[in-house]
Amino acid sequence: MDVTSDSPWGSIGLDRFEGQLLEHLMGSPPADTASVAHVAGVSTAKAEQALRRLEEVSLVQRSAGQPARWTAGPPRSSLGALLARRRTELARAEDLAERLYAAYEAASAPRSAHLVEVLQQGEEVAGRYAQLLRASSVEVLHLAKPPYVTADRTSAPVPEVGPGVRLRSVYETEGFTDAVSLDTASRGTAGGGELRLASFLPTKLVVFDRTSALLPVRSERPAAGSLVVHSFALVASLAALFEMVWDQAVPASLNAGHARTAPPRRPAAVPVDERTREILGLMATGMKDDAIARALGISRRTVQKHVSDAGTALGAKTRFQIGLLAAEQGWLDRRAPGPAPGTRHAHGPGRTAVTS
Q: What is the pTM of this model?
């Protein structure tokens, strides 16, 4: 039987020719085998074989007499009964698949538990992340991208890398669209961490001393859980992925005008008017100049002037630097949207919140 996927009859177990014969009989008076074969342009033997197949599944009936004549049954009842049988068969197959999967999981868990941990609760992820971070003694590699989750800062202290641990982070540029993200990245580099930016990251990822790695089960839904990978081959592959991203990413400094080795310090306080604060707060959310102008009921030129004046006051040359330094000045704290009180963005290691 040639049941093809592009045939509508394939879903109920009929091949294309059987379906064509059934369609013919549905719109024709009873006919004998020879007449059906003539209309179909096939041998009598092939027509007989297809008609008997249709009879087996109760779609056609054969009348008594010589020669026997074939009649299609009422489609609602005959096809409905066939579809019901097929649904029952599919349900049994699905049940079998579930039982086989359960048996596979039961047999596989003991073998794979030492290679991969599955963390399903946010508290599990936060606790395991902090533990792995504290245990790191050489380096932490970090890829951070939206969407971010939040962690209650009152439930546990924000984990930090230990002294002498090299921290390298690559942030997806979309992650620099609100005040909390900018401030988090700034604190992440304040202790000597290295930062780069990329327009796209394949996944969230943290690699600890190249012996363990933490990444979400589903990148688009970080709250769905995380995986802790211990397999040497897998961790090595994830570390290689990080290095590829790191090489292509653009280095960024959050302390404009100062060498990275200089003691971390915040720029001197700069006054800001309320309108500039509003504009920069909206700019930090990712809004373009035209959208900001419409939201505040001012002209696009006015928006650009405030941004330019802010850059001059901060000593910044790009909009990105303006956003970073404005966050350090605290200009965005009152206006820019962020997590609810008691929460912070989950960006990753260093002086940052939990990545998951």
A: 0.45
116-252: in CATH 3.30.870.10: yes
Q: How confident is the model at residue 206 (pLDDT cuts 50, 70, 90)?
A: very high
152 vs 329, residue with greater confidence: 329
Indicate the domain borders of the chain.
10-74, 116-252, 274-339
- 3-state SS track over the chain: CCCCCCCCCHHHCCCHHHHHHHHHHHCCCCEEHHHHHHHHCCCHHHHHHHHHHHHHCCCEEECCCCCCEEEECCHHHHHHHHHHHHHHHHHHHHHHHHHHHHHHHHHHHHHHCCCEEEECCHHHHHHHHHHHHHHCCCEEEEEECCCCCEEECCCCCCCCCCCCCEEEEEEEHHHCCCHHHHHHHHHHHHCCCEEEEECCCCCCEEEECCCEEEEECCCCCHHHCEEEECCHHHHHHHHHHHHHHHHHCEEECCCCCCCCCCCCCCCCCCCCCHHHHHHHHHHHCCCCHHHHHHHHCCCHHHHHHHHHHHHHHHCCCCHHHHHHHHHHHCCCCCCCCCCCCCEEECCCCCCCCCCC
**What is the CATH T-level fold of the domain 10-74, as seen in this structure?**
Arc Repressor Mutant, subunit A (1.10.10)
Provide the pLDDT for residue 1.
Answer: 42
The answer to whether domain 10-74 and domain 274-339 are alike in fold is yes
Hey, what CATH class is 274-339 in?
A: mainly alpha
